[in-house]
Amino acid sequence: QVQLVESGGGLVQAGGSLRLSCSASGIIFRINAMGWYRQAPGKQRELVAITRGANINYVDSVKGRFTISRDSAKNAVFLQMNSLKPEDTAVYYCNAGVLRSASYSIESEYWGQGTQVTVSS
């Protein structure tokens, strides 16, 4: 069993910043990828940012404002969010693609519980 624990959400005014953190624990051989998704009320969940090896991808709406980073030794991922806008308001979810053992190469997906980010105008 793998658990993802998130922190850092909250209420901030437009133009402000927040830093989200996510740490994975449990039976883990290797984490191939970690990323952040978000879901606003009435909308589908969307990928915000993901890091896989040296590759990093962002949704267009956050490019230049958000930065994703990894601390592989601690099985952690972070999302630095600057210049926040009201349209960034959503529940943000941590996601990890995990290899459970050296003898099993199929990647399993795990999700955090979500953390609320609210940006006021």
Task: Supply the key terms.
single chain; mainly beta; 7-stranded mixed beta sheet; 4-stranded antiparallel beta sheet
What does it look like?
The protein is mainly beta and about 120 residues long. About 0% of the residues lie in helices and about 60% in strands. It has strands at about 1-5, 10-15, 20-25, 30-40, 45-50, 55-60, 65-70, 75-80, 90-100, 110, 115-120. Strands 2, 4, 5, 6, 9, 10 and 11 form a seven-stranded mixed sheet that branches. Strands 1-3-8-7 form a four-stranded antiparallel sheet, with no helix packed on it.
- Helix coverage percent of residues? under 10%
- Tally of separate helices: 0
Q: Spell the H/E element sequence.
A: EEEEEEEEEEE
Q: Low-confidence parts lasting 5 or more residues at pLDDT below 50?
A: none
Distance between the termini: 40 Å
C-alpha-based Rg, rounded: 14 Å
What global shape is seen?
A: elongated
Would you tell me the structural class of the helices and strands?
A: mainly beta
Number of strands: 11
Strand content: over 45%
**Largest beta-sheet details:** 7 strands, mixed
Q: What would the average pLDDT be, to the nearest integer?
A: 96
